[in-house]
Design a protein that fits this description.
Layout: E1 4-6, H1 10-19, H2 24-30, E2 44-46, H3 47-60, H4 70-73, H5 81-88, H6 92-102, E3 110-116, E4 120-127, H7 134-152, E5 160-162, H8 172-178, E6 182-183, E7 189-194, H9 195-198, H10 207-224, H11 229-240, H12 248-254, H13 259-268, H14 273-288, H15 296-302, H16 308-319, H17 323-330
Parallel strand pairs: 5-6
Antiparallel strand pairs: 1-2, 3-4, 4-7, 5-7
Helix pairs in contact: 5-6, 5-10, 10-11, 11-14, 12-13, 15-16
Amino acid sequence: MPLSFYSPALDLLIKIMRSYRVDPVPILRDLAIDPKKVADINARFRMDQVLGLFQQMEEKIPDSSFGLKAAEFWHPSHMGPLGYAWMTSDNLSAAFNRLCRFSKIVTEGSKLTLVEKDDEVSMEFRFLKNIALTSRSDTAMAMLIAMVQANGGPGLHPVSVSFSHAAPEDPGPYFALFQCPVEFDAPVTTFNLSKEETEKPRSSSHAQLSLLHDQLMREYLNRLDKDNIVERVKAAIVDMLPSGHISDALIARALFMTERTLQRRLQVEGTTFKSLLTEVRQELADQYIRDSRLTLQEISFLLGFAELSSFSRAFKRWNGMSPKHYRASHSG
C-alpha cells in the first residue's frame, strides 16, 4: 500500500497558503485532493499527493521559509488523537515518546527517533522518499516548537536545532522562531531540548485522558496497518488486562490466529508476548500512579495482577522504588 498522510493535517498547509494569499483550491484540484476530505478524521491522502503540494507551495510562495509559518497555525486537531495525547502527557518526555511511537498516525513519510544524552534530549527527523524539500523539514520543526510551547509555555525554547537542508539567504526567521543556535547542512534535522525541561510536570497533563488517547491511537494504528502485529497485540493486552486472565493463547485467539503463529510473528519483530505484556504494564502503571484518584489496589487490578503485593514487587523492579514512594515523590 502507498504511504499515506492524515487528512486533517493538510489544513495546516492550506492555512499557510492562504496567509500568503495563494488560492489552494486549484492546486488541490490538480493533485486530485478533495478539499471536502481535509476535515474528515477517517480520511487519508497519499504521500505523493502531499509531497506534490509542498512542491507547488515552494513554486508559488515567494518566501523560502514559509514552512516556519506552521508554528503560527498548528492545533492539536491537525494530529488527531496524537495531538491531544501530546497535550495531556505528564511531561515532555512522555509526549516525545508518544510522538515517536504514534507519528505514523499523522504521516508515514518520516521516521522520528528520540535520542537521550546526559543533559539533552534530541528528536531526530528522517524523511522517507528522500526528496529535497526545504519546506517539509521546516514545517515539521515549526510544528514541534509550537507543540513544545503549547505543552511547556511560550517561553520554552530548544537548546539548539539543526536542519539537513542548506542555509537560506536570510536565516533570520529561523533564529527568531527558535531563539537558539541554528545549524544548516547538518547530517540530520534535529530538535534539541534540555533534559531538565522534558522531565518537568506540566499543568495540562491528565492521566485518564492520556490513557483514552493511547487506546484510540492503538485502535487507529490497528486499522491503518493490519500487519502491525506489535500494536495489535498491545491493544489486545490493554483490553484484557483488567480481567486478570491474560496469556499468549488468549491474545492469539482474540487476533484470530494460533498461538504458534503469534509467537512466530512476534519473533520476527524481535519481541515476545511476555516482553510486550511487561511493556504495556510499565507504561500504564506510570500513568495510573500519577492519578491520585486511583488507589494502589485499583491500579493493581487494572494491570491484571492477582495481588497488590505482586504489583508492588513488579513496580519496584521497574522503577527502583515501591509504588507508594514513587507516588509520594512525584506528587505536586
